[in-house]
Amino acid sequence: MKHARQSILLAALLIFFYSCGDSIKKEGEEMEPIKIMTLDPGHFHAALVQKSMYDGVSPEVHVFAPEGEDVSSYLERIKGFNQREENPTTWNVNVFTGDDFFEQMIIKKPGNVVVLSGNNGKKSEYILKSVEAGINVLADKPMVITPDKFPLLEQAFTTAEKNGVLLYDIMTERHEITTMLQKALSHTPTVFGDLQKGSADKPAVTKESVHHFFKYVSGSPLKRPAWFFDTDQQGEGIVDVTTHLVDLIQWECYPEVILQKSDIEMVSARRWPTIMNAKEFEKVTGFQEFPGYLQKNIVDNNLNVYSNGEMIYKIKDVFAKVVVEWRYQAPEGTGDTHYSIMRGTLSDLIISQGSEEGFKPTLYIKQHNNDDSFSDELTATLSGLPWEGITAEMIDPGYWKVTIPDRYKIGHEAHFGQVTEKYIQYLKSGKLPVWEVPNMIVKYYTTIEGLKLAGE
Fold it and tell me: 13 - beta bridge partners?
């Protein structure tokens, strides 16, 4: 009882702390126009934030970056968005390049929001110094990639609250329709029942994703910077893509619940490399030789990239598993894939994206009993959801396939606009939901603890 009272008191204090701080918009004042700064856009996600225009956001964007292909590629993508025939954007990009690009951004501060999507090795410092300067931050994942930098991230959230600015990461997968449906159905007792507790051998929740180094983005081959393959700069897979998977587990299993680091117990973790030869490296980067900073990972003339990871952990009393794997290139007609299962007492909710699904995310429901009323309950539940036209068909006894209208399948790139729209709403209101900050801290605590265990 004493422990329970302490937990309740701590939760109440967290709610008070995260809801009562200064906001970027003072009461009675109008929100100043949102002006974007983009810092060292080494990842193509930085450009995807600007694939659309937004109400209340100035078309003037200030870019601070070192000279090189990273910023050139970013500018080419923005130019493509501005010149496309359908719904062209109207961004006016002002560029500062120089060795002191970050210092100049802090000094000049021509905007009030900085977008960070690039080299992750410096991201934690960039985040902290930006919020110290009173700048709002919209950061691509991951915010932190090594245990020694995790305290900086925690400090950044505290400083952001103190300075009345919003620090937020780009969690695109919350806007994918099969995931949204999986979440909604997992909280429907008549269809899903209760979430099982699971075990280390059979977790209650599993999320796996497969990605590819060579791919096409906006119809063009993606050219990755060479540093992307240096885990000291990009981060290992277990702290990179797994950020999305850990976020979804928290978001689906415990929606709007304030989590604590003590809710996480790491059970097991492992890591392994993707092996790439020199020709493959040249195809995806344009570099004919491996740069010097990659020599530490060269084995038998091949590059070993520790981009793969798996961890099993308990979140509160539920066993969860996340797996990320990077391959070089997807077979023709395929792409990145995602698999997810949530095990309930009445049914399992399964997202699959394999060859049977045409490599498109598809939601299935596996019924545990032979109760004839399940069909009526499922039909009634689907008809009551906020997405019209969603139906389910039994394709095998007790096994249902959910059919989703195409209008809800907008694609991964469009999700960046949805996240940005949500962030703009938060900026205009002057605050994040009370659970977002503590849960971001828990999310990165989970990935860092997984990395630590995998490296033992």
Answer: none
